[in-house]
């Protein structure tokens, strides 16, 4: 039975996929399956004539007068033999406990499914419709309506007797009825009426649009969307009606309610059934088409459309053509659309088939995306709805996506997606790596391999490294830099690199990579040797990081040749590991490098390399003369005689002048400036620094016969030597350039000095006067004398205990106090008294300021 069901469901899906709509990229809104099991058995021998749906079960009526109760899978739970002829309609109340049935032979039955309550009646004409009150289970709602040539309302009275009332007649057979709340809607040959069961009034009449269609062949379809919204489908026309309350002022003799048509539009095909779906409509349509070969009209497959109603038209959301059994022989009246409100299930009923349509869930959505090879969208949908999907797993979708990308040749994208999809599953990672190896795309997946959590087998990483080593040295070097050294067997990779270096021993990329591998393996000596050979910038970082100073003691020259500045800084920063003596010895054969080192050492500390200052004189003279004079000035340890000898040998005048002056031979230094440099300004500056009168005399004597020198002296000598001394010695008639300007400058300098002296005198007098006034104010202030003060001589209280006795106290400005009798008598030379403690010699802070007597 299950196998047959699968085959039937598969054939239905295949046939549905043949529709034009399915060929497009639009995703269908519904999915379909045949109602099988017991339904299959029933329809093999009988034909379905009607069906009604409850949330808990289904009720199916047949042409042979049988009524079957089915579960939602189509299994038979109960069977009722109602009539030997066709069952026209079945009605259930909302509780599902009472059922009404009518048949072609005029029989009407209303009975309880779980109670003995029952009503039987046989009419003399076929009864086409029946509808029980939605709340029939209540004692106050024991009502139902039947329809043949007239519409009858049956109601049980208080004596348990049934009485009937004619609600309508005279407009042909009643062919459709729907009861919702207090409203009953029915259709006859002329149109649709609505009856209010509370007010006992018919509140509207909606006429039929296309009267050319036979109402028995193209019956009206009714359904209530809610308690006040009725949807009418008849022929190709759809009307949506809203029942509204009439305002009290408008009532008069009119019903309390009225109907407003809020939407009306035409469809392409004949309507066989209607059902609401949120704010949309599900429409079952009967389709007739014309054969291209015979040009005859034939019955095509019925269509199930979802449409969005608008005020005067509609928008098609989806449309599916359904292959139901025997559709070629069916008419419009043979199809019915029933629905379950709670679960959005739609049942397409035909004589030989019952098909269930349901809204597609997230699993169906993912199925469609996978079918259309939209794997990325499927993966995203699964991640968003992972709590709701039941048939799919995110990992399975992801693996399918990777396979699809690989098949399409998008290897880099496939490898990148592995990070997200495979996550921390090491086994899957290894499987995918081998798959990429089989297609020769290990390079594509290498950037995305996990490096921490999880860690794959070392063989995986080694396999990829070997792949790069064979074809891409730069890529190999990049992986070695980026991958932690513990991911693979370092010795295996080192050996592989060394084998390649045998073929290409000067390849810098391989050498650098080998150095990095040695570093990972803590073989720092070999790594350092390669870095130095390559003159690589990381050599200093390597030395610092791994404290390799013991390994570079014999490689100092190499380091200095590579980058002398960095090398010197490193050596000086680590004197405790490589001594200054060792560095100087290593650089003995390279004096230019030795000078660079010692110069930097001297700049850092003038005293650390004092033993090498004598050597540095020659080094500065040879390689760095501009820094020789600053060195001579700053060094206190270089031998001056040796320095003077070297400077005189090389004719370094400035340095020789400095050394002569430092050794006390200022006259020789000045002579050298005048004779060698011929620079009067420098000579004057030198004389100013020495501040020696004899030097000025020598300078004047040397310059007296040289007019340019005289001009320089006249411009600069005024503040150090009396210019008259120079002017008196100038020979008469000697032409001196700019003499007038020089004399004017001397006079201006003299006037300036006079002004400065007068200004200083005024300031001094003003300050003296201000301080004198301040001292006078201070001395005029009173001094507190009380019982706590003592005589500084006898150390007894300064004031007597008996205040009536006469006393005399002397208080000095220094705040020391004495009894007058305790002070020594003043000397004959000076009548002034002074504080013995302060021992002041002159009248001032220690002199007496107050004498108290009583």
UniProtKB/TrEMBL annotation:
Keywords: Autophagy, Cytoplasm, Cytoplasmic vesicle, Endosome, Golgi apparatus, Lysosome, Membrane, Metal-binding, Protein transport, Transport, Zinc, Zinc-finger. Residues 14-26 have a biased composition (Acidic residues). Signal peptide: none annotated. InterPro entries: Beta-prop_Vps41, Clathrin_H-chain/VPS_repeat, TPR-like_helical_dom_sf, Vps41, Vps41/Vps8, WD40/YVTN_repeat-like_dom_sf, WD40_repeat_dom_sf, Znf_RING. Its main location: cytoplasm. It is a peripheral membrane protein. CHCR repeats lie at residues 568-712. The keyword Ribosomal protein does not apply. It comes from the Eukaryota. The keyword Zinc-finger applies. GO terms for molecular function: identical protein binding; microtubule binding; zinc ion binding. It is found in: Cytoplasm, Cytosol; Early endosome membrane; Endosome membrane; Late endosome membrane. GO terms for biological process: cellular response to starvation; endosomal vesicle fusion; endosome to lysosome transport; late endosome to lysosome transport; macroautophagy; protein targeting to vacuole. GO terms for cellular component: AP-3 adaptor complex; clathrin complex; clathrin-coated vesicle; cytosol; early endosome membrane; Golgi apparatus; late endosome membrane; lysosomal HOPS complex. Residues 1-33 are annotated as: Disordered. Gene3D superfamilies: Tetratricopeptide repeat domain, YVTN repeat-like/Quinoprotein amine dehydrogenase. Belongs to the VPS41 family. PANTHER family: VACUOLAR PROTEIN SORTING VPS41, VACUOLAR PROTEIN SORTING-ASSOCIATED PROTEIN 41 HOMOLOG. Plays a role in vesicle-mediated protein trafficking to lysosomal compartments including the endocytic membrane transport pathways. This is Vacuolar protein sorting-associated protein 41 homolog. The lineage of its organism: Eukaryota, Metazoa, Chordata, Craniata, Vertebrata.
């Amino acid at each position: 039975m299950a196998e047959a069901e699968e085959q039937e469901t598969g054939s239905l899906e295949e046939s549905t996929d043949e529709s034009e709509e399915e060929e497009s990229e639009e995703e269908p809104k519904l999915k379909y399956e045949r109602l099988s099991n017991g339904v299959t058995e029933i329809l093999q021998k009988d034909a379905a004539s009607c069906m009604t749906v409850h949330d808990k079960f289904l009720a199916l009526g047949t042409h042979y007068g049988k009524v079957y109760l089915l579960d939602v899978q189509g299994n038979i739970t109960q069977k009722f033999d109602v009539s030997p002829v066709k069952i026209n309609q079945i009605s259930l109340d909302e509780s599902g406990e009472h059922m009404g049935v009518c048949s072609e032979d005029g029989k009407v039955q209303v009975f309880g499914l779980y109670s003995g309550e029952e009503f039987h009646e046989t009419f003399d004409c076929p009864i086409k419709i029946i509808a029980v009150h939605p709340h029939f289970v209540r004692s106050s709602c024991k009502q139902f309506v039947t329809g043949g040539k007239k519409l009858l309302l049956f109601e049980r009275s208080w004596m348990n007797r049934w009485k009937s009332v004619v609600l309508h007649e005279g407009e042909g057979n009643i062919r459709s009825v729907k009861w919702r709340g207090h409203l009953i809607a029915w259709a006859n040959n002329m149109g649709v009426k609505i009856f209010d069961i509370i007010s006992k009034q018919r509140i509207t009449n909606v006429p039929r649009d296309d009267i050319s269609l036979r109402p028995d062949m193209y019956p009206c379809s009714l359904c209530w969307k809610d308690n006040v919204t009725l949807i009418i489908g008849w022929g190709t026309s759809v009307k949506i009606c809203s029942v509204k309350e009439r305002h009290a002022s408008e009532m008069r003799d009119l019903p309390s309610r009225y109907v407003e048509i809020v939407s009306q539009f035409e469809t392409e095909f004949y309507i066989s059934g209607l059902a609401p779906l949120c704010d949309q409509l599900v429409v079952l349509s009967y389709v007739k088409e014309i054969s291209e070969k015979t040009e005859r009209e034939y019955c095509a497959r019925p269509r199930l459309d979802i449409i969005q109603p608008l005020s005067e038209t509609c928008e098609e959301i989806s449309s599916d053509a359904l292959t139901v059994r025997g559709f070629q022989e069916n008419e419009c009246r043979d199809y019915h659309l029933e629905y379950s409100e709670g679960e959005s299930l739609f049942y397409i009923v035909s004589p030989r088939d019952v098909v269930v349509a349901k809204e597609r869930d997230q699993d169906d959505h993912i199925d469609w995306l996978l079918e259309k090879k939209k794997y990325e969208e499927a993966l995203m949908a699964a991640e968003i709805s992972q709590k709701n999907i039941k048939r799919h797993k995110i990992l399975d979708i992801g693996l399918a996506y990777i396979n699809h990308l690989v098949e399409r040749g998008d290897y880099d994208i496939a490898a990148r997606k592995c990070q997200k999809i495979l996550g921390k599953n090491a086994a899957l990672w290894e499987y995918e790596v081998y798959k990429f190896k089989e297609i020769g795309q290990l390079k594509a997946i290498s950037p995305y391999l996990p490096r921490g959590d999880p860690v794959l087998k070392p063989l995986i990483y080694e396999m990829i490294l070997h792949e790069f080593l064979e074809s891409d040295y730069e890529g190999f070097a990049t992986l070695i830099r980026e991958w932690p050294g513990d991911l693979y067997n370092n010795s295996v990779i080192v050996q592989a690199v060394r084998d390649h270096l045998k073929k290409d021993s000067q390849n810098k990329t391989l050498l650098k990579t080998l150095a990095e591998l040695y570093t990972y393996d803590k073989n720092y000596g070999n790594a350092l040797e390669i870095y130095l050979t390559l003159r690589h910038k990381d050599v200093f970082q390597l030395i610092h990081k791994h404290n390799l100073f013991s390994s570079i003691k014999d490689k100092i020259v190499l380091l200095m040749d590579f980058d002398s500045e960095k090398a010197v800084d490193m050596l000086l920063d680590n004197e405790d590991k490589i001594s200054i003596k060792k560095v100087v010895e290593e650089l003995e054969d390279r004096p230019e490098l030795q000078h660079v080192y010692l110069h930097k050492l001297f700049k850092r500390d003038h005293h650390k390399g004092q033993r090498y200052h004598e050597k540095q004189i020659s080094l500065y003279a040879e390689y760095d003369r501009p820094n020789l004079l600053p060195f001579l000035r700053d060094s206190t340890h270089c031998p001056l005689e040796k320095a003077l000898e070297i400077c005189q040998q090389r004719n370094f005048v400035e340095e020789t002048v400095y050394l002569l002056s430092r050794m006390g031979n200022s006259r020789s230094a000045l002579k050298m400036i005048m004779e060698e440099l011929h620079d009067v300004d420098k000579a004057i500056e030198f004389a100013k620094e020495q501040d020696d009168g004899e030097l000025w005399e020598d300078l004047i004597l040397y310059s007296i016969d040289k007019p340019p020198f005289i001009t320089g002296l006249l411009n600069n000598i005024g503040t150090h030597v009396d210019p008259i001394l120079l002017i008196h010695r100038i020979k008469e008639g000697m032409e001196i350039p700019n003499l007038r300007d020089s004399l004017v400058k001397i006079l201006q300098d003299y006037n300036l000095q006079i002004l400065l002296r007068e200004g200083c005198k005024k300031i001094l007098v003003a300050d003296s006067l201000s301080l004198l006034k301040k001292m006078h104010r201070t001395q005029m202030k009173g001094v507190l004398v009380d019982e706590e003060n003592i005589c500084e001589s006898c150390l007894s209280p300064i004031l007597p205990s008996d205040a009536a006795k006469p006393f005399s106290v002397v208080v000095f400005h220094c705040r020391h106090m004495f009894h007058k009798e305790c002070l020594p008598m003043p000397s004959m030379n000076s009548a002034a008294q002074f504080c013995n403690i302060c021992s002041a010699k002159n009248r001032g802070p220690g002199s007496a300021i107050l004498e108290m007597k009583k």
